[in-house]
User: Fold this.
Amino acid sequence: MLRIFKGEEMLYDITETSKVRFLSRVRQNTFAFALENGQIGVYHKKGKVWKIKHKQKPTALLGIDFNNDGKCDVIMGFENGRIEVRDDVTGGIIFKKNLSSAISKILYCDFRMQKSMQVICCTVDGEGKL
Assistant:
């Protein structure tokens, strides 16, 4: 179940089919979600924009502008090492790659301290490059 609050006031109450594993802000009034049963999608306010059902369980989720086009994207990591980047409006795949082990975390930061943001993807065995 998802409950959206503004201050102490509950705005929306959304029922989902499985336990929520991850939530990530994508942009104003829009967030991505990943459920334990492999369902992933995006809500705008209380309306579901898109959803997909993935065979693998999600292990990481992040909403960012992946390809620097000024639009937000949703990056997902899975237990089989797969990484997918999807458009936040259509759900279409922008990028995909398979790493050798389960994804443990996806970060977006200036790792090299060069005033340039990078996506950092970590796996349970320490591999972490895209």
User: Anything to note?
Assistant: The mean pLDDT is 90.
